[in-house]
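Quick question: what would this complex look like in 3D?
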Amino acid sequence: MSTAPATQSFGNRIRTEFKPRRVLVGALVLIVAWEIAALLFTRGMAHPEYVMPDLWYVAQHGLPGLSDYYRGMFGGELTSEGAAQSFRFGALAVVEHSLISLMRVTIGFLVGTCLGIVLGLLMSAVRPVRLAGFGVANMLRMLPLLALAPLFTLWLGPTSVSSIAFIAFVVCLITIIGTMTAVGNLDISTSEYARTLGAGRAYIYRRIVLPSILPELCATTTLCVPMAWSVLLASELYGIQNGIGWMMGQSLAFTLVDRITVIAGVFIVLTFISLRLVQGANHQLTRWAE
Amino acid sequence: MAVNSTTLAAPAALSTPEADFMTTAFTLRNLQLEYREGDEANRPLDGIDLVIPRGQFVCILGPSGQGKSTLLRCLAGLLPPTGGELFAGDTPVTGPGADRGMVFQNDAIPMWLRVEDNVAFGPRAKGLKKADYQERVDHFLDEVGLADRRRAWPRQLSGGMRKRVAIAAVFANDPEVLLMDEPFGALDFITRSKLHRLITKLWQETHKTICFVTHDIDEVLVLADRVIVLNQGKVALDEAVDFVRPRGEELRSSPQANALRGRLLDILGAEDTV
C-alpha cells in the first residue's frame, strides 16, 4: 500500500484554470443561491419581480422583454411598431447588441494590448521614457478607472469611438504595468547569451525579451478580458444608444430585474467565450513553455 | 600565497610586440575589478597578468568566490574592468561580441526557439542568409548528436542535451574564442564525461581557443592544456597540462596526474578560501 507523505498537502497546487465543468458547477451554485435568496428576501412583497424574481419568472419574462430593444438588424417588426414581445425577437435583440458590444471590446482590447506592450517595452528600454511614463501609469492605476466612463463620453461623444477608446485606455494601462513587471522579472542570462552571439539591442528586444515575457503577459491579458467587458458596460451605460450595456441601462431605469438577470447571463457567456479565445491564443504563443 | 609560474613565460609575453597579437587570443595587463560595498572595497580581480595564445584550452580553476566567473565575464565583455588593460586579439574589449561566444552555467538558451533555431541564432543575429549558415548549423547539430531532435523545444530535452544545444550554437556562430562558465557543473558524472569527450573533439577539430571555468580538478586533468588557479582575485598558479590525448580513465589515476592533482590541491588548500 502506498501512502502519501504527510507534508504533501502543503505542496498541493490550487487549481484555478477555467474548465467547463467547474463553470457548470459554479453556475449551479449561483442558481441555487439565487433561488434561496429570492425565496427569503421577497417573501410577502406585492411585486417581488421588481426586486428579485425567481428564475422561473426570469425565464418566462426576461428574454421576451428584451424584444423592446430590438432595432431590426435581422429584419422583422419592432415592438415600437406594434409587434408583440417574443422569445425570438428577444434573442435577436441580444444577438444584435452583443455583436455591437463584441466589436467594441475586440477593437479596444486589441488596440490596448498592442499599445500597452509597445509602450511597456519602450519604457523598459529607454530610461527617460520610463521615468516619465511609469509614474504616470502607476498614478492612473490608483484611479477608480470605471468612474472615468462619463469623461470619455464627454470628450469623444456617445459613440463607439468613445467606448473603444475607453476600453483601449484601461487595457493599455494594465498591459504597460504588466509588460514592465515581466521585463523586470527577466532572467538576464539569456540576453547576455544573445549578446555574446553578436545580437544587437533591437534584435534582443525582438527575439529574446518579447518572447520571454509572453508567459507573464498572458496572465495580464487574461486579467484584461473581464476588465474590458466591465469597462464596456460602464461606457455603454453613459449616453451610448446601443450595446448590451445600453440594454442593461434601460432595464435598470425601470428596475426590470428579470431583463437585467438575462443580460447579466449574456455578459457572463460573452466574457467566458472571449476568455477562452484569449487563453487559446495564449496557449499557441507559449507552447514552448508548457 | 604560493604563486607559481612554470612552463609558461607569461611575464615576458606581456611586453609582446604588436605582431604577436596575431597569435594571441587574450592579453590581460594588471586587470582589476573593484567595487565598494559601503566603506569596504571588494576586489574580485586584483591585478591579473595573462597572455592566452590562440588555440589553447585553458582551464581556470578555483574555489567559489575567487573571481573565476568574474574574469570570464570580463573576457566576454559583459563586465567592464575598473583597471588595467584587456585585449581580445589586438582589440581592446569594450563589450560582448560574436568573436567571444559563451556557454553559461545555467540554461541560458532561449527556451522558445526550437533546437535548430537555437543553433542558428548567432548567424541570424548577424544578418546572414540561410544559405550561408545552414550547412554549418546542420554540421554542428550532427556533431553534438541532436540532428534528430532539431524540431524539439529545449524543455523537451534533458539538461545534458540543452548544454549540447548551447555548445552547438556557439560553435555554429564561429567565434574566435569559447568562454565556458562551469557549463557541466549541474550534470551527472556520465553526462559530464560524454560532454568532456564532445568538447575535446570539437576543440581539436576547430582549433578554437577555449577558456573553461571549473572548480573540478578532474575536469582540468581531462580537458586542459593549461591551468590557471585563481585565489582571491590573483593568479595563484599558471601551469601547462601536457598530458597526451586522448585522456581516458587511466589518466586520472596515473602518477603524473596525481602529481598535478596534489599541486593543485596544495594551492587550493594553501589559503583559507572557504
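Answer marked as accepted. The CA atoms of residues 123 and 130 of chain A lie 4 Å apart.
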